[in-house]
Q: What sequence folds into this?
């Protein structure tokens, strides 16, 4: 039932985002990515298959999608645009390509968009069943995968299973896990707040047994990991990578899962228990 | 006797037309006052919780449901019709509002300050025109009504 709701929320979000392009894109089932590149046909990615539409991405189309994605309020999205992406409702994520303005070596703003990659979230119930609940209830879990490997989908499913047995708090820094938190699975969602700024308050005020985080950054998030582990909170997180080769912060995790994008996203390659 | 009655009716009609003319100009002032109030509200909402413009317009409409301006802007970035303003003036207001939301936080502050200054100028102009033309037309119609009544009687 929740997956029907999830799909509905995502479709509504994407319908608003794409406008008149929506019908052409969703004439195809199982769309997971839409690529808009200025002057080129719009491309739709299904599972492992790319379809070129007859519609060509114009500057007006890109600007319209961006205007909707920022809710006609660039000032609310500038910080994320400076990181090269924009989260949108329902967990939809827009990757930004174009001419950026820089200031003191940092991205300052997007002067002109020439490409957008719209990634749609997927809820695949049962994709984390490879981890029995009894093995993860008292463990810190790390899911490692390359881009498009299915980390976030796996994390969502695991968070759903854990929320049935304990207090789960989701630190959704980029607004990608559930976007605007519209899918109440019993988790507490802390959205758009940097992990480092939010984790102490989360521990003090939200009584978490599990804290779920997406896309760890080793140099920025190690302090957060150690802080949470030191408080007795179980951490469930994802990280980019191609292997379970030991990295400095990996010692904090009792269970590590490696996913692959081949032959399709979410393919479990290895599970390692400490 | 009939002339007296008809004269009265004509006089009352002329006064009503004059009143209606004055009310038209006062409604323009109301719209401009609401625009200034909205921009102040907008600045607060952005500064306090970085609300998006559609949300701010919606919130303003919820607080001012009887305002013609708030109603016409409630579906931002789409605008409804606003008969209280001449078409060119309404387009100028729309352009002013559409230019909001196109910059980062710092730029937004400057843009809002500019919009407020423009809105206050429009308000002053509407008050001045209302005072001059609205009152003038009302008085002219009153005078015409009384004159016609006297002539008919």
A:
């Amino acid at each position: 039932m929740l997956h029907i709701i999830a799909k509905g929320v995502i479709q509504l979000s994407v319908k608003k985002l794409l406008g008149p392009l929506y019908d052409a894109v969703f004439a195809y089932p199982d769309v997971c990515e839409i690529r808009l590149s200025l002057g080129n046909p719009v491309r739709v990615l299904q599972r492992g298959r790319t379809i070129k539409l007859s519609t060509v991405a114009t500057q007006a189309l890109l600007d319209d999608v961006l205007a909707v994605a920022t809710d006609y309020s660039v000032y609310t999205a500038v910080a994320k645009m400076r990181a090269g992406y924009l989260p949108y409702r329902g967990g939809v994520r827009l990757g930004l390509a174009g001419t950026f303005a820089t200031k003191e070596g940092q991205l300052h703003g997007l002067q002109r968009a020439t490409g957008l990659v719209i990634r749609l979230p997927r809820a695949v119930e049962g994709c984390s069943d490879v981890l029995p609940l009894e093995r993860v209830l008292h463990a810190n879990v790390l899911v490692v995968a390359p881009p498009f490997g299915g980390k976030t989908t796996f994390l969502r499913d695991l968070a759903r299973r854990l929320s049935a047995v304990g207090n789960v708090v989701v630190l959704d820094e980029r607004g990608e896990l559930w976007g605007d938190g519209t899918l109440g699975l019993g988790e507490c969602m802390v959205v758009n707040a940097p992990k480092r700024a939010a984790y102490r308050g989360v521990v003090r005020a939200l009584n978490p047994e599990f804290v779920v985080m997406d896309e760890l950054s080793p140099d920025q998030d190690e302090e957060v990991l150690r802080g949470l582990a030191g408080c007795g909170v179980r951490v469930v997180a994802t990280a980019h990578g191609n292997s379970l080769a030991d990295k400095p912060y990996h010692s904090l995790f009792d269970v590590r899962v490696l996913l692959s994008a081949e032959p399709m996203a979410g393919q479990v390659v290895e599970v390692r228990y400490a | 006797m009939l002339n007296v009655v008809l004269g009265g009716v004509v006089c009352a009609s002329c006064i009503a037309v004059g009143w209606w003319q004055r009310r038209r100009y006062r409604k323009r002032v109301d719209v401009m006052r609401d625009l200034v109030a909205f921009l102040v509200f907008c600045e607060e909402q952005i500064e306090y919780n970085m609300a998006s413009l559609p949300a701010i317009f919606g919130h303003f409409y919820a607080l001012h449901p009887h305002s013609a301006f708030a109603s016409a802007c409630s579906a931002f970035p789409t605008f409804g019709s606003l008969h209280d303003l001449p078409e060119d003036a309404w387009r100028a207001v729309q352009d002013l509002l559409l230019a909001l939301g196109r910059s980062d936080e710092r730029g937004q502050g400057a843009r809002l300050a500019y919009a407020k200054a423009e809105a206050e100028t429009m308000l002053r102009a509407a008050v001045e025109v209302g005072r001059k033309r609205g009152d003038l037309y009302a008085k002219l119609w009153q005078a015409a009504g009384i004159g016609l009544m006297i002539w008919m009687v």
About this structure: Chain B has one domain: 27-141.
